[in-house]
Each structure stands twice: as structure tokens, then as C-alpha cells.
Amino acid sequence: MRPTQRLGVEERGSSRDTAFHPVIAGADVLAKATLLVLVVLVLMEPAWGNLEGKAPVGRAVVYPLWAFVVPVVWMVRSRRRPYPFPWLPDLLLTLTCFTDVLGNRLDLYDSFFWFDDLMHFACTALVSAALVLLTERRGERLLDTVTRSVAFGSTASLAWELWEYVAFMTHSGEFASAYGDTLGDLSHGWLGAVLAAFFVDHLHGTLRRRSAARNV
Q1: In this predicted model, what pLDDT tens digit does every residue of 33-68 receive, in sequence order?
Q2: Smallest Cα–Cα separation from 6: which of 153, 132, 144?
Q3: Do 192 and 128 form a contact (C-beta atoms < 8 A)?
Q4: Using alpha carbons only, what angle is made at residue 121 by residues 167 and 103, rounded to the nearest 5 degrees?
């Protein structure tokens, strides 16, 4: 299997849609640059980002590492066998960090009781879609896509909840309600992973139809 088959929208037969690449690449670079600025400001003054007592240092360290994991892996692998950069999966992973820092900065978590649930749903969907795109195989069935997406999403949700628990939940005022909140977060993450699988499958179907229309 050629590496370009594992890049989401890079190759599905001849289904590459290059019209979206400048937009996706620009959004990816902008999101990364803005994220770096935000985490530096949070590290300097946690209160500015409304992250007092919510592991601001941990976020400032982990988020940039997470946002740049795809570029690092791509650089290492492309030395042996060059292949196009996976802009879309990289953007999706970056957005999970960017939206969390921005949401805290705008105080959306405390202003809207439903925002935390929305973020767990959306961020798990983004992570699942990114990892499914990065590991896809030609001709994959919807059931296989859903299975991998749920496996990725559920694992990511569990990892986040464990990190929250260790990083700040045990000495937070929310500890008394943490059990119910964790169950809700994991449930929303599971739903997000399922939605991501259907989105990726629909995206591939659309690209295949466009490719077939061009070849007629």
C-alpha cells in the first residue's frame, strides 16, 4: 500500500480534490500559530485564559506537542519515502487544542452549562476523524470505519479523563460531581466518534463520485 493511501483525501483512486488544499493548509498554519500565542499568554498569566487551577502549565506543554505530532511523524517518514503532507488530519488535531484554549479564554465553559459537553463531543469527533483519515485503507467498509473511529475516540476520551483527574480534578471544587461528569464526557465522546466515522465515509463517497464524473 502506497503512503498516499493513508492521507484521508489525498488519494481515493483519482479522487484528490486540490481546490481545498490552500484553504485547509492556511487554516492549519493559522490555528497552530494562534495556539502557540495563546498557550504562551496562558503560561505567563493563567487568569488571562481563565485556567487557574485547571493545569495551565500542563496544557501549555501538552497542546503544542499534540498539535505538532503529525508534522514530526511526517518529516521522519517522508525521508524514507516522500508523500504529500496530510493537511486535513493535521488541522483536525490542531483544532482540538485550539478550541479548548479559546473556549476557556472566552469563559464559555462557565458561561454555558452545555459547552463542556459540546466540546467533548466535537473534540472526540475531530480526533477520531483525523486518525481514521490517517489510517484508512482503500475500499474500506463503513462498519470498519466506524469500528476504528470508536476505538480511537473512546481511547482518546479515556486518556483525556485520566489526564484531567491526575492534573487538577482531585483538588478541584468539582471533584464531588466528577463521576457523573466523567460518564457524560465519555458518552459524548463515543457519539462524536460515531459521527466522525459517518462523516469520513460520506466524504470518501463524495470524492469517489466526483472522480468518476471527471473520468466519464
Answers
A1: 999 999 999 999 999 999 888 888 888 999 999 999
A2: 132
A3: yes
A4: 60
CB 90 within 8 A of CB 69: no
Q: pTM of this prediction? A: 0.71
Contacts of 210 (CB under 8 A, 6+ apart): 15, 17
103 within 8 A of 115, measured Cβ to Cβ: yes
Residue pair 94/35 in contact by the 8 Å Cβ criterion = yes
Dist. CA 48–CA 43, nearest whole Å? 9
Identify the residue whose cell numbers are 469563559.
Answer: 107
- Alpha-carbon gap, residue 169 to 182, rounded angstroms: 11
Q: Are 171 and 55 in contact (CB under 8 A)?
A: no
Specify the pLDDT at position 117. Answer: 85
